[in-house]
Amino acid sequence: MQSFTFYNTTKIVFGKGQISELSNLISKDQKIMMIAGGGSINKNGVYDQVMSALEGYKVIEFWGLQPNPEYEKCMEAVQLAKEEKVDFLLSVGGGSVLDATKFIAAALHYEGDDPWAFLDSGEEIKSMMPVGCILTLPATGSESNGNAVISRSERNQKLAFSNPKAMPVFSILDPETTLTLDDRQTANGIVDAFIHVMEQYMTYDVNTPLQDRQAEAILKTLIEQAPKVKANPNDYNTRANIMWCATQALNTLIGSGVVQDWSTHMIGHELTVLHGLDHAQTLAIVLPALLKHQRKQKGGKLVQFGRRVWDIQDTGEDSVIQKAIEKMAGFFEEAGNPTQLSAYDIKVDDCLIAAKRLFEREGKIGERGDIGQAEIEAILRLAE
Ligand code: NZQ
Ligand code: ZN
Predict the structure, then answer these.
(1) Ligand 1 test: best mutation among 96, 143, 173, 283, most atoms within 8 Å of CB?
(2) Given 146, 178, 210, which residue is the final one in a domain?
(3) Kind of pairing, strands 147-152 and 88-93?
(4) Both 192 and 151 in a single domain?
(5) Which domain holds residue 228?
């Protein structure tokens, strides 16, 4: 096992009606800026619940953060928060609103010229305004980690930062708020969470049986719950199970002490920049192709994945690997996310620039540092 520090400071408040706990989580002397997206929280009553829980508080509102939140919009929020002298940021919505809120919180305490430096030159975040979260879309794990992904379209960039200071102080997870998710966002959430687990699991063995089995438990639970939510989207317990899986998938626990490979996310982010696909739509396209390409390097774990997660009992390892990748791709398709670029009418030749851009920025990626420009191109061709 590799050495690690596990440090997760987010208080999770989970269950029906828990938004009413807000008054026990934020002190009354703090001026709050509530940050939201395009309006889903109005339609499902979450906004009303938040406002009623915050009765008697000083609250201002900032709306309009987009999916794949934009730097420019975040900077408008920074401006308003400065003018209004707020002390606390409350994110209400999905991962995009929360990532934006984390960036805004870091920007508010930044003394340099442009806080984009946290993303493109890896400048360290020294201090942040505290962030609280009410999550309405289980997917990213952002509710319990220090990551944020921000886009800057004018520069064709979608970049991430990661810092334990960016963990929300608390996250309220009420599965009832997720009952209004449509099929597309529900599928996106399941696929994103599944692939977060895969990127912390599907590398090579460093003798971490506990982390492996925890990862496999999340994968198996998602495989079990996905058809249930499709058949009965209004079932509270199914939504609750998916929500808890998504948090566990990326709260850094299963990633402790293991070798990770975030290539699928890196390639996926480039596809979102180039073609505007949803985050999880890109991942469902890239991962099956990446595993086909890396089947030798990842062979041991692929066999384990096939046997333990998909119960494939064939004796030949090649056959287990092939079936495991097919079953995983079938699972994504069944959930609602196609696994080929052609499903979105995207030509592979229009994606190859992603390989060049990523290689020039990050060098060779993958757990063995053996995925360079030519390999990314080959992976994209396998996803044609
Ligand atoms: O904007 P509103 O109106 O709120 O609508 C949103 C949005 O249109 C809607 N929605 C959210 N909750 C809903 C709802 N609709 C109905 N009922 C509800 N309860 O769903 C749409 C998508 O929301 P978004 O927040 O964009 O989705 P998600 O949570 O999947 O976040 C995706 C973003 O997170 C980043 C991605 O790159 C992408 O930018 N990621 C962040 C990570 C992290 N911080 O750790 C890791 C991930 O790998 C990912 O990269
Ligand atoms: Zn993701």
Answers:
(1) 96
(2) 178
(3) unpaired
(4) no
(5) 183-382
Q: In this structure, are 165 and 191 located in the same domain?
A: no
254 within 8 A of 211, measured Cβ to Cβ: yes
Instruction: Give 190-199 pLDDT, tens digit per residue.
Output: 999 999 999 9
What is the structure's pLDDT at 254? 98
Ligand 1, CB within 6 Å, residue ranges: 37-41, 44, 67-68, 93-97, 99, 136-137, 139-142, 145, 147-149, 177-178, 180-181, 185, 188, 192, 250, 265, 279
Contact 136, 178 (CB under 8 A): yes
**pLDDT more than 70, % of the chain:** 100
Question: Residue 298 belongs to a domain with what CATH number?
Answer: 1.20.1090.10
102 and 84, same domain (yes or no): yes
Q: Which residue's alpha carbon is nearest to atom 26 within ligand 1?
A: 67
State the pLDDT at residue 83: 98
Give the residue whose CA is nearest to atom 33 of ligand 1: 96
292 shares a domain with 248: yes
Structure confidence at residue 290 (pLDDT)? 98
DSSP category for residue 70:
B
Burial code of 192-214, b = ≥16 C-beta within 10 A, e = fewer?
Answer: bbbbbbbbbbbbeeeebeebbeb
